[in-house]
Amino acid sequence: MTGQAVPLMPETRPAAATPLLSATDLRKTYALPHGRTLHAVDGVSIDVMPGEVLGLVGESGCGKSTLGRSLIRLAEPSSGRIVFDGRDITTLPERTLRPLRQQMQMVFQDSYASLNPRRRIGDLLAEPLRVHKKPGGQKWTSAAIAARQTELMDLVGLGHQALERYPHEFSGGQRQRINIARALALSPRLIVADEPVSALDVSVQAQIVNLFADLQDHLGLTYVFVAHDLAVVRQISTRVAVMYLGAIVEIGETDAVLHRPAHPYTLALTQAVPRPVPGEHRPTPLRGDVPSPISRPAGCRFHTRCPIAQDRCKVEEPALRTIGPGQDVACHYPNHWAD
Amino acid sequence: MPSNAPAPLLDVRELSVSFRSRGRMIPVVERVSFTLHEGEILGLVGESGSGKSVTAMALMGLIDTPGVQISGSVLFQGHELVGMGQRQLRRLRGSRIAMIFQDPMTAFTPVYTVGWQIDEQILAHERVSRKQARARTITLLGDMGVPDPARTADSYPHQLSGGMRQRAMIAMALSCNPALLIADEPTTALDVTVQAQILDLMRNLRTTYGSAVLLITHDMGVVAETCDNTFVLYSGRMAETGPTSAVFARPGHPYTAALLASIPPMDGPRPHRLPAIAGLPPAPLERPAGCAFAPRCSYAHAACLPAPPPALVRVGTAHQAACVLPLEGTPLTPSVMGRDAA
Q1: Where is the ABC transporter domain (chain B) (predicted)?
Q2: Which of B62, B170, B287, B322 has the fewest CB neighbours in a 10 Å radius?
Q3: pLDDT higher for B144 or A88?
Q4: What mean pLDDT is predicted for residues B73-82?
């Protein structure tokens, strides 16, 4: 399966709709003591198409959360360009950005920390409505807010009685439903969800993954779904981007990337996921740990752990290139899968 | 069980743990029984709040909360651990029974090197010189797959990666060659590629160190890949126990079946929706008198509701489930997996 380099294929993807969000050469660095720099996001270019679910996967420290936040400017990118719905938002001042924020919302991993424990659920849902105006420019009336609160609870499968209660009265799964409801309050077009089901038990996790899928069907939402769990990402995503040390090493249609991984890292990652099938073949795990993003290896960022690394990989950094329909990879020697 | 079978290393019978809260006793673990033989890896699975960690802590005699009530019997190599004095327990812990935890950062003191701490563990239980202890420490770290073990021994915990810290903790746990290793979510905090390395290591322990392992986890994938036998807890009670291959291929309890079905698959077709289990496990005080899973079970009927909860019944070779269906002759159908959340 690991073969010689595959010749570059011409861009085969049809000129589809314009991306809802487009990032070009996005970087996010953090200055550390002693003049060192941490490259959390290291030159990522990515398009998020309307109506898709783009899964961002990778191990801890790969920059997937920082990328997710930077895309909607919850973390200020150090350089690069972000275009949302045709408008360059990279340097928009917060005041000008605010009306656009309605259209991009976020759901976090820790369902408890993201809800003020001293406010009732109804209050928490009303807050974004009080801060922002309706799409037409007029304010939300209290009657409209009340109607919206009930509608939101219905959407996420909680009764309107929940509006009178406090966050601690709910389980983790229910709190995540509330967080989703709040993110939906302003009818956003894009939701960035950062590990939204990682803290939940499996049986509850399935409920929330289904909820995300249903809401997308009903409301035509676009998601950037950040998660370390490949099985969850596979379930929800139309496309998957695999990150390693701040960069995308492979991106493409979910089935292509996860079933015919071209990058040796993607392959190792998919094989490392324990399957609930006893006696299944276990491949040799990848050696070593992820290097520090403070001093990332020269050449290909993966070469220190790569089972097929050559001398070239130690010096020359591979660029992301298209190797098949809907599949791009940053590797000098990508896997070639016979059909 | 045939009478000539060797006595189990660990024989837990009807272990119950209750905590006192606001004048009431809260039954966290109810009448749990299982055995663990030499060289065996037993997976104890359950969701959060199922009582799996409390079970492990009770085995180790690590629960000393005021008002706690522990009943039942825990025979380890023929010695009764329930009610054993702290002095005697301390002698067992570390030398005959060792435990590793999810977070290796909290298991080490940040102010001493990792090697010094492992040396201490050896010195506390055996009459060896510090030099001999350090030699053993370095061998152990090397066995755990730590590159450059001598240098790692001189490192402080914060200088090591999560995977290396977990290896060091396993090295410390194995330093006195325990007969039983209790591992509570040992890979949950690790990335999958590192998890694969640690699971590999755990599987090899029985051959290299002869230790039996009680592996506590919420991850059915980890159990399938690592454990000989599986023991499923639900809301503080035993739901199912048996050989891992049988439990996964022919789950006898609707909870096990539904839990397996709700895991998003890594291979094969993707279901349009995941067969989720509706609702939540009950809190200990709201636990039904009958089957604890009945409120979420698509098979629930009148027989499931009255006390006492269903006892374990045989559903296969060494395979038991606490469910009324096997006695009624009702097989589990795939429909149990088709249930969905409201």
Answers
A1: 12-260
A2: B62
A3: A88
A4: 93
